[in-house]
Specification:
about 350 residues; 5-stranded mixed β-sheet; BTB domain-containing protein; 2 domains; Potassium Channel Kv1.1, Chain A; BTB/POZ_dom; elongated; SKP1/BTB/POZ_sf; alpha/beta
């Protein structure tokens, strides 16, 4: 097939000693990358082996005095790979960027193909650092993105990236985000409605397959029950506000017992009135978020009129509850992964 070759506008160096030609596009146009053998060989065992073949230059056609390697990869894929090799800071340094899994997908594809382990590790790290593996990491990241909601990582792209390239560690957090995302808010509509919707989590739902939807629906069903448990536990629906050791103040001053009991009841009532919109949380479109709900209570409990001991125990109780919920999310996700493998 006849095709034309155009030098890449950035990655075509005069000092390059090898030319990589992309596969031609639908219009018969290919892109040439004149780069350095040393850079390719340092990062890729495939290219390193290729360049050490006897008379390797004689195996390829020549272009302006340098050997040409014609590959089957697209211009988009090769440009992303060259950017990873020559300008890695532009690809791997952004936090909370919803485009990160999309941008790094062609990099991962070629890093796997050409055995570029370091590039692959950096791409995996760039995606994984936005998706926590433990509750403690979730709590830290959730606090960071609370003020950066416009830069919230996009969960569907992360799921697709993780499943396509076998990176299961980020799936629990990504699936959890999908389980409490509104299915009516599609990624392409994120700029349509104006600033009043800026706190909505937009999602690329079309990237999910049947297995992903099954995980999301099952996880959502479980979280609905957990949300009801959270509400019952902390608002007196089970006639204990709340249950367990929190009902007894540890203070040696008897007058503080009544104060702490009143303070606890008041903070829980305020939490229920201000933060608990069960009609919205349990609506069909928007999924439950018990971790986030508990996080709101954790933020509020420090303002309660209680002694230091009661505040500390309430904070610990909330955190332990969150950790237990997180572990159940991880377990359910891992169970589904085992079933599809």
């Amino acid at each position: 097939m006849e095709y034309t070759v155009t030098p890449h506008h950035k990655f075509h160096f005069n000092h390059g000693d090898v030319a990589i030609h992309s596969a031609p596009d639908s219009e018969g146009k290919a892109t040439a990358y004149r780069v350095n053998k040393a850079v390719l060989a340092l990062n890729s065992t495939v290219f390193a082996d290729m360049f050490t073949l006897p008379d390797a230059d004689g195996l390829h056609e020549m272009d302006d005095g340098v050997p040409v390697v014609v590959v089957t990869d697209s211009e988009e894929e090769l440009s992303a790979l060259m950017q990873a090799l020559y300008e890695p800071h532009t690809l791997f340094s952004c936090r909370f960027d919803p485009e990160t899994p999309i941008r790094l997908t062609p990099v991962m594809k070629l890093a796997n193909k050409y055995e570029m382990d370091t590039i692959r590790e950096r791409a995996v790290e760039a995606v994984c650092r936005d998706w926590p593996e433990t509750f403690e990491q979730w709590a830290r990241i959730n606090a960071e993105i609370h003020s950066l909601i416009d830069r919230t990582p996009e969960a569907a792209a992360a799921v697709r990236f993780a499943r396509d390239f076998n990176i299961p560690s980020i799936l629990p957090a990504a699936y959890y985000a999908l389980a409490h995302s509104d299915r009516n808010w599609h990624w392409d509509s994120r700029n349509v409605f104006g600033n009043q919707w800026r706190y909505v989590r937009y999602t690329r739902w079309e990237l999910l397959d049947a297995i992903d939807y099954k995980v999301v629906l099952c996880l959502r069903s479980m979280l609905v029950g957990k949300l009801s448990n959270v509400v019952s536990q902390y608002t007196g629906e089970t006639n204990s506000i709340p249950v367990g050791p929190l009902t007894v103040c540890p203070s040696t001053h008897s007058e503080s017992h009544a104060t702490c009991a009143t303070g606890l009841a008041e903070i829980l009532q305020r939490w229920k009135e201000n933060e608990l919109d069960l009609g919205s949380m349990l609506a069909e479109a928007e999924g439950p978020n018990p971790l986030g709900l508990l996080d709101q209570l954790h933020r509020m409990h420090t303002t309660a009129e209680m002694c230091g001991g009661c505040k500390t125990r309430l904070g610990r109780h909330i955190t332990m509850y969150q950790i237990a919920l997180w572990e159940q999310v991880v377990l359910m996700t891992e169970t589904f992964q085992e079933e599809v493998q």
